[in-house]
Structure formats: structure tokens, C-alpha cells
């Protein structure tokens, strides 16, 4: 490997050799359009931010020389989808649970990942064209679409169940014909101004829907078969009882499995088979039911209820409560009806 450049070193080279070819704002439905070049690469870039929590970026880069750069993702708490129209991108990312230490993103494929608060080395090669459509989704925005776990990819279920979901990088699969159509419609959007922006947002959501449907299809093909015996079923019910008795400070999945004497994988899939949801999906619903009773029947204030049912974040609690009951916790306390 050639020398690894820090972000500061890359930025210095960019600034020292920068040639601005075009920069425009609020044109063709995009918030920013930029064409620049420097001694490392030539960059064509487009950005549009839609409703809060959803953005689209288009990168079309050509590298003049081999670049190894150290990049950090500190504070970047967004789910990211990428679609490769040209080029290959290598990444060295050692020591991160759930992520390969070396991985490559390649032309014709699409990826979904959540990699906040990490540092990695990105590799680009001289003569390569990297042409990518990238979509970033804020976690709170994602949750506005979720009304249960039934049709949610398993990879994303922790985002509904936890304030701190695990990192992951998933090669979803080949860019399908339907995805290709949506991608080309994004690149060749026929409108201007506000109409263009509305059109692009619709296509971005369509593309995300196609990607999530592909993930669900792949997961279905990999669904493990769990053979539950009577003793296993009894242990899973014991696990459920432990959860409901300790809903404010629940054990982890592995701790719960140890308590009832069952393999954590069998507990996870067996719980879904018996109760139709994940272990912590069941816990979340139980907590919210307790919260509803405390608000409705005892008229406790929202902050007290949040602490009682074990939520660390009041805004996350409020969002989960509204998804389940169709009203805010405060409206529930005041006796208002669901929307």
C-alpha cells in the first residue's frame, strides 16, 4: 500500500491545486451542483436535501493518481444506501464488530450500511471513474415509515428496538432492472425547480423501497429452520416472563438465553415463531402498553413514565408511542383520541 493520507493532508492537496470549474446553488432541483478538479481527482457533485432526514448525493469522480485516505465517520448517525454505476471502491476497516476488515464496493451492485463513529482507510486507483448515487436517511425519518416488524428487514429491526443500533455494512445485491430505471430517472429528471425536487424525492423513496424489498427477499432465502422441542418452548416462555418482570432494566439477548438455558440463536428465532416478533420487539410493545396505562389511568406526567418504563430518550419514546397508538404521550394523558 502507498502512503496513507489523513483527511487534513488530502484537504491541503485539494486546496493547493484546486480549480473550480462550476459551482451553482438551487438549480435544476438541486441545492448544490459542483464541478472541480485538483491534482488527485476531478469531481462532479450534486446534492439535494428533501424533508428533514433524507438527502441525495450524486458523485462522478475520476482519479488521476492512487489515493489512500484515512476517513472518520464521527457523528454521522445516518443509514446510507449506495448504488454503483461505475468503478470499484476498496475499504480497510479493521476491528469493527459486524464489518469485514477489508471490503470492496463494486460496479453494478448496491449497498446499505450504518457506520457511525469509526475510522477507515478508503482506497482509489489512478484511472478509475467512480460514479455513485448515495442516499442518506436519518434514523428518526426512517422510523416514521415503520408501524411494526412484520415487513421490516431483520437488518433494520435494531433501529426500531434500540437507541444505539449496531454498525453494519451489507452488500445487498445486484442493481435490478427496476433500480436501473429509477436511477436513470434520477440522473435524467425532466423537470425544473420545485417540481424537479418533488420528482427526485419520489424516485429516491422508490429506490429505497426497491432496496429494502431486495434485502427482505435475500433474508427469506437465508431464513434458518428452527426445530423447537417442548422444552425449548417452555424456556422461551420463561424468557418472556423474565422480560416482562424486568422491563425497565432488561437483560441482553445473550444474558437472557443463559438465564433460561437455551442457545441465543434458538431463542431469537423461536421467540419470533411463538410470539410473531423479536425478543426486544415484544419488550418494546410491553413497555408501551405499561406506559399507556400509566398515562391514561394514573395521569402520570410523561417524564415520569419515560423513566418508569426504562426509556433513555424521551423523544425516542414519544416517536415509538405515536407509531403504536397514533397519538402523542401527552395527548394520551389528556384523554384525546388517536388520529
Biggest sheet, spatial arrangement of strands: 2-3-4-5-12-7-10-13
What's the Cα radius of gyration? Answer: 23 Å
Low-confidence residue ranges: none
- Return the average pLDDT rounded to an integer: 86
Order of helices and strands: EHEEEEEEEEEEEHHEHHHHHHHHH
Explain how this protein is built:
It is built from 12 helices and 13 strands. It is an alpha+beta fold and 339 residues long. The N and C termini lie far apart (59 Å).
What order do the helices and strands come in, and which of them pair?
Layout: E1 4-6, H1 7-16, E2 19-27, E3 30-37, E4 41-49, E5 54-63, E6 67-72, E7 78-86, E8 89-92, E9 102-105, E10 109-114, E11 119-124, E12 129-138, H2 139-143, H3 157-161, E13 168-174, H4 177-187, H5 193-221, H6 230-245, H7 253-260, H8 264-275, H9 279-296, H10 302-309, H11 314-325, H12 329-333
Parallel strand pairs: 1-6
Antiparallel strand pairs: 2-3, 3-4, 4-5, 5-12, 6-11, 7-10, 7-12, 8-9, 8-11, 10-13
Helix pairs in contact: 4-5, 6-7, 6-8, 9-10
Task: Give a quick set of tags describing it.
globular, eight-stranded antiparallel sheet, five-stranded mixed sheet, 12 helices, 41% helix, 339 residues
